[in-house]
Write a structure and sequence with these properties.
Elements: H1 3-21, H2 30-48, H3 55-71, H4 73-81, H5 85-122
Helix pairs in contact: 1-2, 1-5, 3-5, 4-5
């Protein structure tokens, strides 16, 4: 399996976990949450189609989600107390584990793309 497909799978997993978490959040932020999840779906499609310039948005959105989860006191409280448990699982899994995995798989895909590009220019 090529590396951009792995990125697309991680992005799809992020979108699914995020969609499960939308009903748990503050109703005032549902439109922003839907846009964010739509961004993950769009990036998953672009990654699956091997769009060359998808690496930067993947890094940016992962960093924004990690920073956002770390910046909100309510999120930190839920994750440290594990109360409510379902919310904590969604926040930790979607906001840290999958975002870290996204950054890692994106780095691997970027490095592979660089190698292929350099090899094709040399040959």
């Amino acid at each position: 399996m090529d590396s951009l497909r792995r990125v697309a799978i991680v992005l799809a997993a992020v979108a699914v976990v995020g969609a499960l978490g939308i009903p748990l959040g503050d109703p005032r932020f549902v439109p922003q949450a839907v846009v964010l999840e739509g961004s993950f779906v769009a990036l998953a499609v672009l990654s699956a189609r091997h769009y060359r310039h998808v690496y930067i948005p993947n890094f940016v959105i992962a960093a924004i989600v990690i920073a956002g989860n770390s910046a909100f006191y309510k999120h930190i409280e839920i994750m440290t107390t594990l109360h409510p448990l379902y919310n904590a699982i969604v926040l930790i899994t979607g906001g840290y584990v999958l975002q870290g995995l996204l950054i890692f798989t994106n780095i691997l895909a970027y490095q592979e793309n660089k190698r292929v590009t350099l090899r094709s220019k040399a040959g």
